[in-house]
Every structure is written in C-alpha cells, then in structure tokens.
Amino acid sequence: MHANKKARTGSLRIREDVPKYLLNLNIDSAYYAPKSRSMRENPLPHLNPEEAVYSGDNFTLSSGDTQEFKKMRGFVLSQSEGDTPVHMEGSPSQTELAYKKDQEKKKEDYQKLQAQIRLKYGVKNESPPEFQDPERN
Predict the structure, then answer these.
(1) Residue 32 forms beta bridges with which residues?
(2) Which three-class secondary structure string do you get for the chain?
(3) pLDDT mean over 118-126
(4) 0.85 exceeded by the pTM?
(5) Do 75 and 68 meet the contact criterion of CB atoms below 8 Å apart?
(6) β-bridge pairing 38-39 and 32-33
(7) Contact in structure between 56 and 42 (CB atoms under 8 Å)
(8) pLDDT tens across 69-96, in order?
(9) What angle is formed at CA 49 by the lines to CA 47 and CA 50, rounded to 5 degrees?
(10) CA-closest candidate to residue 97, choices 108, 84, 110
C-alpha cells in the first residue's frame, strides 16, 4: 500500500461471520433491508434466546443502556426549552449530572407526595410503593 493512499475499512465486515440474511432463508422470515443492512425482527424466533447468534436489530435497540439514553435525550429536549440549556454532545458529563439530579428530585418529590397522602388519609404503612418513573414504558 502506498503511503499517500488511505485504506477504507469502514464498510468491510469480517468474512468469517455469517451475514444476517443467510441465517434463515425462509421467504416468510424476517425482512432484510439491503440498503441499510438491517434486519429488525429475529430471523430465528424458534431458537432459545440464549442460543441465538443474532436476535435482530430491534433487540439491540432495546437492550443495554439504550433506553436510559433515550430518556436522557428526552430530558435534554425538555431542558432546551428551559432557562438552563444542556447540550448532550457538547457536554455529556454536565448532561448526565443534570439528568441524575433531575431524577433524584423527581424521586424526592414522589416520596414527599406519598408522605402527604399517608398523613392526609391516616395510612399506617411506613414504606411507600417503590418510585416508578412516569416516562418508563
């Protein structure tokens, strides 16, 4: 390779891996979009999830920290209308800190509300139900 030429390896895949579209050749199997190289559904739904090599792109989008990231993105959008804008890409640490403070404030407000309700209605149960984030599905 010449020193002045750059190697493009961004779109190459490892050749030992079996492509998604070859996992299940059934016509009624999950649809593979060749332009975006995505397969949303699980091509092998009959397999045990622990045994599956690939579970579809929707599984990837709903696992790990992606749900928390979506909530944080929603928080950033709601804060952009406020008086203290936060920028997720420009200052990720500041954004995460502001998001955690907001979550703690919501939890404290929820606990205060539960205490007021217990006091008002004379409920003797000291342990309120666990806080459920209203933005959660």
Answers:
(1) 39
(2) CCCCCCCCCCCCCCCCCCCHHHCCCCCCCCCEECCCCEECCCCCCCCCCCCCCCCCHHHHHCCCCHHHHHHHHHHHHHHHCCCCCCCCCCCHHHHHHHHHHHHHHHHHHHHHHHHHHHHHHCCCCCCCCCCCCCCCC
(3) 79
(4) no
(5) no
(6) antiparallel
(7) yes
(8) 888 888 888 887 776 777 888 888 888 8
(9) 110
(10) 84
The token pair that represents 18 in the structure block: 């079996």
**Interval 5-41: pLDDT, tens:** 656 655 666 677 777 777 777 777 788 777 877 787 8
What tokens appear for 98 in the block?
A: 């502001």
> Tokens 């003797």 belong to which residue?
124
